[in-house]
Amino acid sequence: MSAVASPPAFRRAEPDARKLSLIEACARVLARSGTAGASVRAIAQEAGNSPGLVSHYFGGVDSLVAATYAHVDGQVAAALDDAVFAAGTNPRDRLEAFVTASFAPPIADPALLATWIAFWSLVTARKDIASQHDEQYAGYRARLEALLDDCGVPQHSQRRHAIAVTALVDGLWLELCLSPGCFTAEEARDIARNFLATIIS
């Protein structure tokens, strides 16, 4: 008797691929039209899927937006991880790589900024997004504190330094994406490096 063939792998992967296509479509719609334009119909049309799939996989547009926020944050975190890994083993190089990666693609991208602004606009309107925002930024600062610790920054100073560096990076990133003619990515990196030099002895 012949063995029963197992289902093709692509069938098992299909739901994940469809969910990802909706998440990526949601990010594009948010970047283009903001939260006001992020309807089930618009997102489904962007993904080339039926509106019913949004409800099937996410229960509604609010959950899809939250999943998209988590996905985009994960992409940013992966880009930061890649930069740190490429910097090697020197603690200061790794810290600088983490901080300055925001001034180069794929993070320094006007489309990413537009999507992020849409998420930020929901922070005051939706408690779940506000909580997600707090968790994601806490995670960023925790990673930054660990890198500062590796560079010998005293533990009692790490939290405030991490807050300051985060604010500096956010401000430079915003301006670099909004008005790239005002200063260059290299200038942004130099400003960040100079600030880090005031923290690390």
TrEMBL record:
<dbReference type="InterPro" id="IPR039538">
    <property type="entry name" value="BetI_C"/>
</dbReference>
<dbReference type="InterPro" id="IPR050109">
    <property type="entry name" value="HTH-type_TetR-like_transc_reg"/>
</dbReference>
<dbReference type="GO" id="GO:0000976">
    <property type="term" value="F:transcription cis-regulatory region binding"/>
</dbReference>
<dbReference type="InterPro" id="IPR001647">
    <property type="entry name" value="HTH_TetR"/>
</dbReference>
<dbReference type="GO" id="GO:0003700">
    <property type="term" value="F:DNA-binding transcription factor activity"/>
</dbReference>
<keyword id="KW-0804">Transcription</keyword>
<dbReference type="Pfam" id="PF13977">
    <property type="entry name" value="TetR_C_6"/>
</dbReference>
<dbReference type="Pfam" id="PF00440">
    <property type="entry name" value="TetR_N"/>
</dbReference>
<keyword id="KW-0238">DNA-binding</keyword>
<keyword id="KW-0805">Transcription regulation</keyword>
<dbReference type="InterPro" id="IPR036271">
    <property type="entry name" value="Tet_transcr_reg_TetR-rel_C_sf"/>
</dbReference>
<feature type="domain" description="HTH tetR-type">
    <location>
        <begin position="16"/>
        <end position="76"/>
    </location>
</feature>
<protein>
    <submittedName>
        <fullName>AcrR family transcriptional regulator</fullName>
    </submittedName>
</protein>
<keyword id="KW-0678">Repressor</keyword>
<dbReference type="InterPro" id="IPR009057">
    <property type="entry name" value="Homeodomain-like_sf"/>
</dbReference>
<feature type="DNA-binding region" description="H-T-H motif">
    <location>
        <begin position="39"/>
        <end position="58"/>
    </location>
</feature>
